[in-house]
Amino acid sequence: MKGPVSLTLETELRERPVQRVPLTAASDGCAAILALIERVAKDPRADVEKLECVVAMYDRLKAKEAELAYNAAKGRILKKLAGIRIVKNRSVLSDVEKSNPQNGTYEAFKYAPLEEIDKHLRPLLAEEGMDLSYSDEPCGGGGILIRGRLKHLPSGHYEDSYMPAPLDTSDGKSDVQAVGSTNSFLRRYVACNIFNIVVVGDDDDGTGGTIDEAQTKTILDLIKKAKAGPKFLKYMKARSIEEAGSLEAAVATITARDYRKAISTLEQQIAKAEVGRADLA
Prior knowledge:
Layout: H1 4-15, H2 23-42, H3 48-81, E1 87-88, E2 90-95, E3 105-111, H4 114-127, E4 130-139, E5 143-152, E6 158-165, H5 175-195, E7 200-201, H6 213-226, H7 230-235, H8 241-244, H9 247-251, H10 259-280
Parallel strand pairs: 1-7
Antiparallel strand pairs: 2-3, 4-5, 5-6
Helix pairs in contact: 1-3, 2-3, 6-10
């Protein structure tokens, strides 16, 4: 049977709004429960059930205290990141299509490599006693699943973020190169997801820039399904294939703010084609 002191503490913990509990209040609560545990342990009349109940309350309060410390530290990092501009500063070159008589390579798109993101993020993590680590494991279809774990080292509280992707076998990559490329790609996106990082183009003054490599690949897949032609690129105010040097490079010039518009347009075209095939059937 629970004693009156433990019932009062448990009711208080259950009814107290989590977001309004200051860290000092949580610490005071932990100290109070520790004192209660000591009293109960010394009481020869105390039963095991009562002691287990109080210990469980202490564990819950410590976990909440750790979560509050984690949230406070992450919040300070997010505030500082809001004033940092991370740009796409690495180019990916696309070979000219075989049908194009010109020679040379063209820039397909730009991206911010993992080291560029880490350069800005790592010092902020160190200041707050936080660590962002990664682990990977195979997933269905031969792809990779990356887990990013953001941990507040003083409290031990952590949160995980996951992202899967198939292996990047483009440009004749070997199996090892494909794994490395996909691993790096996923780590960048996991870090950006955890901290809501928006990477901008290096020449757009922070107005949004063009779509990134993942968005480019998504649109290319939809273009193939929709069998979209040059009119689509013109509609999206992107460069033509002739100007860009390849379809991939042309698609990569679509602005980030028009990404959803491009997806919606292609999906509608695909849906219309499917309806037409159904009518013919």
